[in-house]
Automatic annotation (TrEMBL):
<dbReference type="GO" id="GO:0008460">
    <property type="term" value="F:dTDP-glucose 4,6-dehydratase activity"/>
</dbReference>
<dbReference type="Pfam" id="PF16363">
    <property type="entry name" value="GDP_Man_Dehyd"/>
</dbReference>
<protein>
    <recommendedName>
        <fullName>dTDP-glucose 4,6-dehydratase</fullName>
        <ecNumber>4.2.1.46</ecNumber>
    </recommendedName>
</protein>
<dbReference type="InterPro" id="IPR036291">
    <property type="entry name" value="NAD(P)-bd_dom_sf"/>
</dbReference>
<dbReference type="InterPro" id="IPR016040">
    <property type="entry name" value="NAD(P)-bd_dom"/>
</dbReference>
<dbReference type="InterPro" id="IPR005888">
    <property type="entry name" value="dTDP_Gluc_deHydtase"/>
</dbReference>
<keyword id="KW-0520">NAD</keyword>
<comment type="similarity">
    <text>Belongs to the NAD(P)-dependent epimerase/dehydratase family. dTDP-glucose dehydratase subfamily.</text>
</comment>
<feature type="domain" description="NAD(P)-binding">
    <location>
        <begin position="3"/>
        <end position="322"/>
    </location>
</feature>
<keyword id="KW-0456">Lyase</keyword>
Amino acid sequence: MILVTGGAGFIGANFILDWLRASDEPVLNLDKLTYAGNLENLASLQGDARHLFVQGDIGDRELVGKLLAEHRPRAIVNFAAESHVDRSIHGPEDFIQTNVVGTFHLLEETRGHWMGLPEADKAVFRFLHVSTDEVYGSLGPDDVPFTETTPFAPNSPYSASKASSDHLVRAYHHTYGLPVLTTNCSNNYGPYQFPEKLIPLMILNATRGKPLPIYGDGMNVRDWLYVTDHCSAIRTVLEKGKIGETYNVGGWNEMPNIEIVRTVCALLDEMRPDPAGPHERLVTYVKDRPGHDRRYAIDAGKIHRELGWKPDETFESGIRKTVRWYLDNMAWVEHVASGEYRKWVDVQYGERGAVSGER
Ligand code: NAD
Ligand code: DAU
């Protein structure tokens, strides 16, 4: 089996759903269930013995050690993190605890476990760390996209904490020989994304007739990738990636924020017209994010050349699917927005009884 951390979040849940569609190899899912973790994302796996969920912290060494010894996964895919830049600006502490200290504890337990494995198991074991393009900092309008050798220059507490974890992962390979792989991906979008992030927030607010807050002048550029393409990149790197290497993942899809929001509005006008008028009327420019990175762009040439990966979705196809998904899953959105999903966890898992952090 494989161990996935943070598998109840946006990308982790999509990864597990995709994994179990393509393979019967079981997944042990370790997730703390912070505000961003939502087991409703995995409701379709209810009763599926291939998915084993454990509620817990990647920084809980006793729990991690016990899980590794008991389940002996052949690989770990580490998604668990605090992921929202704005939250890191308001309160960086949790970001340091999970992204830096938590990753360190997870690495330490993994190292101890890996060193004790028989040679054959040791040779095939992998630790894949899922990271972000934000570690590279901000680009000017004419700069070339980030490559794997672009120096780190993180600007927010979030990106600094992810950069720290990337460095630790690298050091565990260099010093101890731990067989690690790292992916640095651009902005994801798609089903199950928590509506604090740009695209789902705009869909949610627009359907409620609420303002669509655009930070600054709306001309900050992000490079968008449909989430299942990120998942397929991670599967590819896990399968074929060279130990110790990092791979940038992106969709060659740079767009200013205001253009993203206009696209979402136009799709909503088509799929669910508002009698009050075009959704774009709700666009509202607000105070900028402090330290707001101007532009991210990923050069995904290495993963394409060396591992043969490329995205399946264009932005046009992906954003259409995404808006459709949110409109078709308003109950999910409402549960998340109201906090109702937390009750769902208790109903679903509470009555089964917790065993030392396991649900
Ligand atoms: P998310 O916030 O939706 O999910 C994070 C998950 O991790 C949640 O389920 C949460 O409960 C869990 N978690 C948090 N702290 C934990 C801890 N201490 N122990 C165990 N579980 C914990 O995040 P996401 O958008 O799915 O991102 C997943 C990973 O991908 C992160 O590492 C993030 O840095 C990286 N990433 C995200 C994007 C993006 O656009 N969303 C792009 C590139 C990389
Ligand atoms: O680049 C990868 C990163 O993308 C991931 O590592 C992060 O986990 C993920 O959250 C995301 O970070 P961003 O800060 O780019 O994403 P966010 O959706 O928060 O914002 C996207 C852009 O939209 C950014 O320039 C800020 C802007 N924005 C965001 C929100 C929430 C707005 O203008 N208004 C908003 O209300």
